[in-house]
C-alpha cells in the first residue's frame, strides 16, 4: 500500500491495535486528503495565529518523554514558510529540558487547543533551537509583550491533523468573560435605573 500522511501517526503497532479494536477499516476508508496535511493551509494559519498557548512534546535520545507548555499573546506563533513556523522562547524556569532534548533528538510534537470553540490540532514534525540570531528573534517577537526572548525555536511540519470536538469542555479566556460580564452589568444598571424612574413616578 502507498504511504499515507496518517502513517506518521499510525505506526504498524498502532494499526494492529486499531484492527484488534475494530477501527482500522473505517480509518482506511476515510478521505485522507480532507483530514491530514503536510503544510500550512489558510485554516491552519488562522488557527495558529489565534492561539495564546500550546504544548510541545520532545523526547531525550533514550526515549524519556517531556511535555512543555508555551504561552504568549495571540500572534506569537509566526508562519515563516509553507512548512515552518516559529516562536520566541521566553525566559522561564531555566530547566532547559526542551532545548536539551532537541539537541540530541529533533523529533517533536505540538498540540494546540481552542477550548472556546472545541477544536484541537496535532502536528508532527522536527524542531530546532536557534541561538544568537537577533534578526530571527526580532521577527518572532510580539511588540508590546513584556518577556525576555532567550532564543528562537523553529518547527518544521511533517504532518498535521485536526481532531473531533468530542469530550472537549468549553473554556473561555478571562478577557472574553470579563467583557461579557461587563455588558451584562451595564444592562442591569440600565434596567435598575429605568425601574427606579418608574417607581418614582408612582
Keywords:
35% helix, eight-stranded antiparallel beta sheet, 3 domains, 202 residues, alpha+beta, extended, Pnp Oxidase, Chain A, single chain
Explain what you see.
With 202 residues, this protein is α+β, with helices and mostly antiparallel strands. Helix content is 35%, strand content 30%. It contains 7 helices and 8 strands, in the order αααβαββββαββαβα. It has helices at 12-21, 24-29, 32-35, 42-50, 97-104, 134-140, 174-200, and strands spanning 36-37, 53-59, 65-71, 78-81, 84-90, 107-114, 119-130, 149-162. Strands 1, 2, 3, 4, 5, 6, 7 and 8 form an 8-stranded antiparallel sheet that branches. The termini are far apart.
- How big a fraction of the residues is strand? 25-35%
- Specify Rg, calculated over alpha carbons: 22 Å
CATH architecture of the largest domain: Roll
Average pLDDT metric: 92
CATH topology name of the largest domain: Pnp Oxidase, Chain A
Number of helices: 7
How many structural domains does the protein architecture include? 3
Main β sheet profile: 8 strands, antiparallel
Give the helices and strands as they follow along the chain. HHHEHEEEEHEEHEH
Give me the secondary-structure category. alpha+beta
**Uncertain residue segments:** none
* Helix content percent band: 25-40%
Amino acid at each position: 500500500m502507498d504511504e499515507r500522511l496518517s502513517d506518521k501517526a499510525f505506526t504498524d503497532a498502532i494499526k494492529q491495535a486499531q484492527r484488534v479494536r475494530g477501527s482500522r477499516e473505517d480509518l482506511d476508508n476515510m478521505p485522507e486528503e480532507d483530514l491530514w496535511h503536510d503544510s500550512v493551509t489558510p485554516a491552519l494559519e488562522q488557527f495558529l495565529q489565534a492561539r495564546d498557548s500550546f504544548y510541545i512534546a520532545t523526547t531525550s535520545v533514550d526515549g524519556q518523554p517531556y511535555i512543555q507548555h508555551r504561552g504568549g499573546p495571540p500572534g506569537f506563533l509566526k508562519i515563516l514558510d509553507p512548512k515552518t513556523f516559529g516562536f520566541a522562547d521566553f525566559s522561564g524556569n531555566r530547566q532547559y529540558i526542551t532545548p536539551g532534548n532537541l539537541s540530541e533528538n529533533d523529533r517533536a510534537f505540538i498540540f494546540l487547543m481552542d477550548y472556546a470553540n472545541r477544536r484541537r490540532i496535532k502536528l508532527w514534525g522536527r524542531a530546532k533551537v536557534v541561538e544568537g540570531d537577533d534578526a530571527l528573534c526580532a521577527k518572532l517577537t510580539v511588540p508590546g509583550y513584556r518577556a525576555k526572548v532567550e532564543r528562537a525555536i523553529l518547527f518544521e511540519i511533517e504532518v498535521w491533523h485536526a481532531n473531533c470536538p468530542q469530550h472537549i469542555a468549553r473554556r473561555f479566556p478571562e478577557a472574553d468573560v470579563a467583557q461579557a460580564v461587563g455588558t451584562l452589568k451595564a444592562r442591569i444598571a440600565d434596567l435598575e435605573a429605568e425601574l427606579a424612574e418608574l417607581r418614582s413616578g408612582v
